[in-house]
Amino acid sequence: MRAWIRQFRRYLIAAPLVLAVGFGWNVWYAWHGNDSVAHRPVDVPKGKRVQLGPDTVQLAGLRVERPRKSSSFDTSTPPPRGAVVVVATFRARIDDVKGYSKFYCDSSVQNADGWIWPAMSGGVPDQYVPPQTPKACDGKTLNKDFKDVVPKPHTWYRFAYGYYVPGSRAHGLRPTLEFYKEDPHYLRFSS
Q: Are 15 and 21 in contact (CB under 8 A)?
């Protein structure tokens, strides 16, 4: 037994160190909030341009509207009873072409009381924004052949997100863009 321990002592010493580093790494990430959930808000003043991954983004407008009657071809879910439709329009520009290929973000809206509502899953219905408006932060749209059309780098494009918010809670609304990368955070825009 002593001969075996002497022969493999390097591995016996290294094994606990490898386990400690392996588990410690995950614990450190969990403690610091890097669990692919955007924990830290970054407040963006009205009209300011900010960096969001490979893009520069700015809030262009926020509208609160009563739900409109949808067309017969509309596949979006009907609004909940007593809800209003909130449409946040953003301006963006692709600054980092290499980083754009894996660019993805999500959106929600918060009110002054801290309530949060996610963006509509199917995007903003066409009766609230022009039909060719991109419905995601990457600005992609589909052409008539159902192929992705990517915005040109270094030129401004607009995109929109829609939210259903209870009419009684639609005060002090602030749209957010959540970005997931090495440092998950979200931008909370003042309107």
A: no
Is the pTM for the entire model greater than 0.85?
Answer: no
Q: What is the pLDDT of residues 15-73, one digit of tens each?
A: 888 877 777 777 766 666 555 566 678 889 988 999 888 888 999 999 998 888 765 45
Please spell the DSSP secondary structure of the chain, one letter per residue. -HHHHHHTHHHHHHHHHHHHHHHHHHHHHHHTT-SSS--EEEEE-TT--EEETTEEEEEEEEEEEPPPPPPTT--SPPPPTTEEEEEEEEEEEE--HHHHTT--EEEEEE-TT--EEEPPTT---TTTS-TT--SSTT--EE-TTS-EEPPPTTSEEEEEEEEEEEGGG-SS-EEEEEE-SSS-EEEEE--
